Amino acid sequence: MLDLSGRLAALVEGRRHLVAEGANPFGVCLDRVISPTEAIVDGRPILLAGTNNYLGLSFARECVEAAREAAATSGTGTTGSRVANGTHALHRRLERRLAELFDVAGAIVFSTGYLANLGVFSALLGPGDTVLIDADAHACIYDGCRLSGATMVRFRHNDCADLDRRLTRLSRSSPPGLVVIAVEGIYSMLGDCAPLPGIVEVKRRHGAVLVVDEAHSFGVLGAKGRGLADATGCGDEADFIVGTFSKSVGTTGGFCVSSRPGLDLLRYSSRPYVFSASPAPPIAAAALAALDLIDEGEDLRRRLWDNAARLHAGLAALGLDLAAPPGPIVAVRMPDEETLAACWRGLLERGVYVNLALPPGTPHGTYLLRCSVSAAHTPDQIDRICRSFAEVARG
Amino acid sequence: MTANTPDDTLDGIRTLLRPFNRQGIELTSSTSMREDLALDSLAVMELAAAIEDRFDIVLPLNLLAEIHTVGDLATRVATIREEEHA
């Protein structure tokens, strides 16, 4: 029998190189957050370039005021599940606003983005059903599918022909249940988009159900910020759209929107929904206020995309290996773990925080310095990020 | 019509395992994929995709948790080949 120290030793060994040299990439503590783009870490001001705070709304006046007001009038938490004492008028309003924003029949709010995918996939699917998951999809999609007991098949990342091949093979054994395809709007690690029109074409041909996770694309893509499905004219073909409040919305929570009948049934069958306390009033109020800002967020999106283009061009000019075309996630490929860790620390020493990402959290065993851009960054800040990269890249 | 025996499947799998066999150990049917080959979850998924394409089958991720040795894998793949191409 393995004892606890034996189990932990394996984990410690896996992170030995990264933690050995002082700054632990997984142990950064922001002593104080000053704005969506600045914080104090170890007494030093740090420029934040890896927070997924795409629109900078975590400090939006409207959202902060709504949260403060909700805390004062409704308290700091609901202390209950949505199916017990945890449904407030505020949660209903938030769901109606989401449905209106996406122009769909219904919306369900979850307590986090992770729980939204866990809740949707585990309730939508069951044993006998089959789900085809993009190879680069987030852990919460895999976890939700695992929880469902459905047959899980992985297809090559963003490869419509591969998806088609796997569906064709599957049809030979005539699976008895539902067939679901799971993709993301923007993939969190490399920052690339799903080829949605191609996926939709395959989906239609095989009569499958399509779930699109717009965690990183909601608020970011499309005229109203609805995400990739809307931006590519595939809104009606995305049977279920899942999203999060913890990125462009600037708070925490998750959601699913759909016009398909039965969405409401998830409220009874989705264990992550039934067995989690609902979002606290200040959180739900901040999300509701942020949805208005996203709906009218043309200026925010323009600033975000200008900043994204500026960072991408600046880093490309340094000859760095960038993983995707310009977008709010700019991931820089590093050759190995040692270079990755050294560059990550070099950036932090120069006052710039980015995400360090490595296998198995990244596709194809790649080592990434992952930047995310915000509408709240100033052009000067973007240039500072580029200069810091230039310095660490020179070594 | 391709041959479809467990031995034939085992040979095919051994070829597909080569890129994952970094220490160059001998691959027999009793080789453990996690302990001897030290395949992590991502490598196992990559291997599954390669097997699916090589044998033109669907190899669900759910099955991978029950598969420990190269021999287990070959038996399982041979069974799926029989079922899907019957």
Largest interface, Cβ cutoff 8 Å = A-B, 17 and 17 residues
Q: Overall pLDDT of chain A, averaged?
A: 94
Order of helices and strands of chain A: HHEEEHHEHEHEHEHEHEEHHHHEEHEEEH
Shape of chain B: globular
What is the succession of H and E elements of chain B?
HHHH
Provide the helix percentage of chain A. 40-55%
Query: What is the tally of helical segments of chain A?
Result: 15
Q: Please, could you describe this protein's structure?
A:
The complex is a heterodimer of chains A (395) and B (86). Chain A is α/β, with parallel strands linked by helices and 395 residues long. Chain A has helices at 4-14, 16-20, 61-74, 89-102, 113-124, 139-148, 160-172, 196-206, 228-231, 266-269, 271-274, 281-295, 298-317, 337-349, 379-394, and strands spanning 32-35, 38-41, 44-48, 106-110, 130-134, 151-155, 179-184, 209-213, 240-244, 254-258, 321-322, 329-334, 352-353, 355-357, 367-372. In chain B, 53% of the residues lie in helices and 0% in strands. Chain B has four helices and no strands. Chain B has helices at residues 6-17, 41-55, 61-64, 70-84. The longest helix of chain B is centred in the middle third of the chain and has 15 residues, at 41-55. The model of chain B has no long low-confidence stretch (mean pLDDT 86). The chains are: A alpha/beta (395), B mainly alpha (86). Chain A binds chain B through residues 130, 135, 146, 151-154, 156, 165-166, 169-170, 172-173, 359-360, 365, and chain B through 40-42, 45, 48-49, 52-53, 56-62, 83-84.
Write out key terms for the chains shown.
heterodimer, A: 395 residues, alpha/beta, 15 strands, B: 86 residues, mainly alpha, globular
Short description:
Chain A has helices at residues 4-14, 16-20, 61-74, 89-102, 113-124, 139-148, 160-172, 196-206, 228-231, 266-269, 271-274, 281-295, 298-317, 337-349, 379-394, and strands spanning 32-35, 38-41, 44-48, 106-110, 130-134, 151-155, 179-184, 209-213, 240-244, 254-258, 321-322, 329-334, 352-353, 355-357, 367-372. With 395 residues, chain A is α/β, with parallel strands linked by helices.
